[in-house]
């Protein structure tokens, strides 16, 4: 396995992953092997995702403008805002599905940048659940969950099966293990997608509007699954319009508009005393539905 040492960067001052690290420990990282580096990162780093002055353009259009965001271990962050404001683009940058062009992003202490050799290393630590479940249609639910640990992490089959069953149990559909995705409802398929991500035992789960393609009666079961994950301490960044979920689960709500973070706060403050005019408008529109 390639070493990720060259992809680990110590940012300067501020709230970045190694901000509180003793200098001599940080300096010692370059000669360590990957496992050691990861465990040192865990010990030193509170920040799981760190974005500083991140900008992204699609051609001439600037989709992200100087974004600064830190997500700490165990934190539940909800990102909301009008369609086209850059929410998806931002979280897709966190696992390099999109590349930012300026600023810095580090995930679990590993810096994402253009010359990065080891995007797969970062993706092992970042689970992502999207609007569309993207399950492999020709594989059973169980195999869908076993595939990534076996193929990407080299987990032996018996252990991968155990993991898959554990997480199918956790999303409360172990009885569906031997079915194919097409035999499941949308809500069940989304829960399989969540279980599949959990099987990689990621440091952070990214949710990109996970309920927006679901029939209304299936939204609750997926939100319930996400809520239970949050209660168990999973670090989560969720793009969602489900404000009930945001109120009950989020530590912090972030409001984006036109590629910028306009406002952020604890859900209580955010919903009852929005500061910015655009946030007030958005809150009044979304909460009146
Ligand atoms: P949101 O998730 O808030 O709805 P997105 O992050 O999907 O917003 O999109 C932000 C902006 O970037 C939108 O104006 C969108 O049209 C544009 N955009 C997103 N993806 C692409 C792309 N692949 N190519 C060009 N423009 C894009």
Main traits of this protein?
four-stranded antiparallel β-sheet; 22% strand; globular; alpha/beta; binds adenosine-5'-diphosphate
Verbal overview:
It is a single chain. This protein is an alpha/beta fold and 289 residues long. It contains eleven helices and ten strands. Helix 5 crosses helix 6 and helix 5 runs parallel beside helix 7. The site of adenosine-5'-diphosphate (ADP) has 11 residues, from strand 2 and helix 3.
Cα end-to-end separation = 50 Å
In what range is the share of β-strand residues? Answer: 15-25%
Going by helix content, strand content and strand pairing, the class is alpha/beta
Specify the helix fraction band. 25-40%
Reading the helices and strands in chain order gives: HHEEEHEEHEHHHEHEHEEHH
What's the rounded overall pLDDT mean? 84
Map the helices and strands.
Elements: H1 23-28, H2 34-44, E1 47-58, E2 61-72, E3 76-80, H3 87-93, E4 102-107, E5 110-112, H4 119-125, E6 126-129, H5 141-153, H6 157-170, H7 186-198, E7 204-208, H8 216-231, E8 236-239, H9 243-249, E9 252-257, E10 260-265, H10 267-272, H11 277-287
Adenosine-5'-diphosphate binds at residues 58, 61, 63, 81, 83-89.
Short description:
With 289 residues, this protein is of the alpha/beta class. It contains eleven helices and ten strands.
């Amino acid at each position: 396995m390639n070493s990720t040492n060259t992809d680990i960067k110590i940012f300067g001052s501020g709230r970045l992953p190694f901000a509180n690290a003793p200098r001599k420990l940080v300096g010692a990282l370059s000669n360590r092997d990957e496992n050691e580096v990861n465990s040192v990162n865990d010990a030193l780093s509170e920040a799981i995702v760190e974005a500083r002055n991140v900008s992204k353009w699609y051609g001439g259009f600037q989709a992200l403008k100087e974004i600064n965001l830190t997500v700490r271990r165990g934190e539940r962050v909800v990102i909301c805002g009008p369609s086209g404001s850059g929410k998806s683009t931002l979280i897709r940058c966190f696992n390099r599905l999109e590349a930012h062009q300026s600023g810095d992003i580090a995930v679990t202490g590993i810096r994402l940048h253009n010359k990065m050799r080891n995007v797969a290393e970062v993706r092992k630590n970042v689970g992502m659940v999207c609007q569309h479940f993207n399950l492999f249609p020709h594989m059973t639910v169980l195999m869908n969950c076993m595939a990534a640990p076996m193929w990407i992490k080299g987990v032996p089959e018996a252990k991968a099966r155990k993991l898959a069953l554990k997480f199918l149990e956790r999303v409360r559909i172990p009885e569906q293990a031997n079915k194919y995705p097409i035999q499941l409802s949308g809500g069940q398929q989304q829960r399989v997608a969540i279980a599949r991500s959990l099987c990689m035992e990621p440091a952070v789960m990214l949710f990109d509007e996970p309920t927006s393609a679901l029939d209304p009666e299936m939204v609750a079961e997926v939100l319930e699954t996400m809520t239970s994950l949050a209660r168990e301490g999973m670090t989560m960044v969720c793009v969602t319009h489900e404000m009930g979920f945001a109120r009950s689960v989020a530590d912090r709500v972030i409001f984006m508009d036109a590629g910028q973070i306009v406002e952020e706060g604890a859900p209580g403050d955010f919903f009852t005393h929005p500061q910015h005019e655009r946030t007030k408008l958005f809150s009044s529109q979304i909460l009146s539905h």
